[in-house]
User: Fold this.
Amino acid sequence: MDKHRLTSVSLYAFFTVSIINLLNQVVHILWVDLLTKPLLMVTLLLYYLAARKVEFSRIAIFMIAALVFSWFGDVLLMLQGRLEGMFIAGLASFLIAHLFYLVVYQQARHTVVLGSYSLFITTRTVFLLLVGFALIYMLYPSLGSLGIPVMIYTAVIISMALAALIRRGRTTEKSFISVYSGALLFIMSDAMLAINKFLDPLVQADLLVMSTYIAAQFLIVKGILFHEHAPAEADAQKGA
Assistant:
C-alpha cells in the first residue's frame, strides 16, 4: 500500500473508530468500548506516521512516545472500575504523555520569533494559570489521598498548554492554532473527567470527556504535522 493511500485509510479508520466510540458513550455497550477505545490512539499513531513527509526526527520519536503513553492511559482508565489502582496508573500514563508533548512543542518551533506576541502570550498565560488554580481549588477538598497526584497532574497539563502557547510566532499559524486548541481541549476533557469523578456527576459526562479528548489528540497530531510539513512545502514552492 502506497503512503498516500495508507494516510487516507488510517485517517478514515481513526474517524470511524472515534464515531463508534462516541456513539457508544450514549448507549454504553461494554464490548464496543473495550474494542474501540484501545484503537483510538493506534489508528491516530498510524495516521501520524503515514502522513509525515519529512525524515524521521526527534519530534517523531517524542510524538510516538506521547501517543503510546496516551494509549496506556486510555486502557488503564477503561479498566479503573474493574481493577484496583487503575485510575492512578492511568493518571501517571497521561502525565508522562503530557511531558512528551511538552518536549515535542519545544522541538517543533523555530528559534526566531516572527512578530510580537508578548501581550497575547502574557494574557493567555495568566488565563491558563488561573484555570489551573481554579481546578485545584475546586477539586482538592474532595480528592483525599489523591490530592497530591492530581495537583502534580494539573501542574503538568497546564505546563503542556503553556508550551503550546509559546509556540506562537515560532511556527506556522495553522500549526500553532491546531496544537494550542488541542491543548485547551485536553484541559477541558480532564477537567470534566475530574469534576464528574470527584465533585458532581455531569450530564452525558462520558460523551463530553471523550469527544473533547479525541478532538484534542487529533488537533495536536495535525498541528505537529503542519509544522513538519512546512519546510517541505516551502521547498516545493521554491522549486516551482
Q: What stands out?
A: The chain is about 80% helix and 0% strand.
